[in-house]
């Protein structure tokens, strides 16, 4: 398994330079009409998302070195940061994100950057399966010593084998999800690896009209100091 992940990392590293070049070239275009300006904006956004995923893959290999410090993190702040970053993408695709925060425990024990990537990957998946009638949802609630983050989409139901892997607590390796062509099996793999490192529970609920991806994070023992 390590050699398989290493192969992915080598391929990802090779892709990073051309992705960065595409991004830089897109920035260099001047005097564009509105249609071409929209294309340029999309090129930049796609290349930046791809570079972010390459960077996340590099972090997967570094997890075993224990370099990512765990600390009290504001779960609402992280969710707001991610939704703000993806807000333009939702708007560009004429989609909306419904948010509801009902958690009383504001701080969780996590690593900010890893947690950011988990929420980011879940929301990016949900973006593909939302429209004006079935908008994506981002929910935060308390759950027996944990804070639960739920990202709900309305796409095809998650395949049973991948659902079982998530129910077990992690995705073994990056996989394509044929039933959900807009979904990123690589993103789910990254999210599950980061969650496991943070001692968070990751899972999914299969609905008749979509899927809810879930991460549950332990409430910070320092939370009472900040209430």
Report what the structure shows:
The protein has 6 helices and 7 strands; from the N terminus they run H-H-E-H-E-E-H-E-E-H-H-E-E. The protein is α+β, with helices and mostly antiparallel strands and 227 residues long. It has 2 domains: 2-65; 71-224, Heat Shock Protein 90 (2-Layer Sandwich). The strands form 2 sheets. A 5-stranded mixed β-sheet has the order 2-4-5-7-6. Strands 1-3 form a two-stranded antiparallel sheet. The longest helix is centred in the N-terminal third of the chain and has 29 residues, at 34-62. The model is unreliable at 177-183 (pLDDT under 50).
**What would you call the structural class?**
alpha+beta
Please write the CATH class name of the largest domain. Answer: Alpha Beta
Count of the domains:
2
CATH architecture identity of the largest domain: 2-Layer Sandwich
Overall 3D geometry?
A: globular
Task: Enumerate how many helices there are, as a single number.
Answer: 6
CATH topology of the largest domain: Heat Shock Protein 90
Q: At the fourth CATH level, what is the homologous superfamily of the largest domain?
A: Histidine kinase-like ATPase, C-terminal domain
Features:
227 residues; alpha+beta; Heat Shock Protein 90; 20% strand; 5-stranded mixed beta sheet; single chain; 2 domains; globular; 7 strands; two-stranded antiparallel ribbon
Write a short abstract of this structure.
The protein has 227 residues and is of the alpha+beta class.
Secondary structure layout plus pairing:
Blueprint: H1 2-28, H2 34-62, E1 71-74, H3 75-92, E2 97-101, E3 107-110, H4 112-127, E4 136-143, E5 146-153, H5 160-168, H6 185-197, E6 201-207, E7 210-218
Parallel strand pairs: 2-4
Antiparallel strand pairs: 1-3, 4-5, 5-7, 6-7
């Amino acid at each position: 398994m390590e050699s398989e992940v290493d192969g992915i990392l080598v391929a990802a590293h090779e892709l990073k330079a051309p992705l960065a070049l595409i991004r830089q070239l897109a920035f260099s275009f001047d005097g564009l009409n509105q249609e071409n300006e929209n294309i340029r904006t999309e090129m930049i956004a796609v290349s930046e998302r791809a570079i972010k995923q390459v960077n996340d893959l590099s972090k997967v290999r570094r997890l075993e070195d224990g370099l990512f410090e765990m600390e009290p993190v504001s779960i609402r702040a992280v969710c707001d940061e991610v939704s703000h970053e993806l807000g333009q993408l939702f708007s560009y695709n004429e989609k909306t994100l419904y948010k509801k925060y009902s958690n009383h425990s504001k701080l969780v024990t996590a690593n900010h950057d890893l947690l950011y990537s988990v929420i980011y990957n879940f929301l990016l998946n949900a973006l593909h399966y939302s429209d004006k009638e079935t908008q994506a949802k981002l929910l935060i609630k308390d759950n027996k010593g944990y804070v639960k983050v739920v990202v709900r989409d309305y796409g095809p139901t998650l395949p049973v084998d991948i659902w079982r892997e998530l129910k077990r607590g992690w995705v073994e390796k990056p996989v394509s999800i044929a039933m959900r062509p807009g979904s990123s099996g690589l993103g789910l793999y990254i999210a599950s690896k980061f969650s496991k490192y943070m001692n968070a529970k990751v899972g999914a609920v299969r609905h008749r009209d979509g899927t809810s991806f879930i991460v549950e994070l332990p409430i910070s023992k320092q939370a009472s100091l900040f209430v």
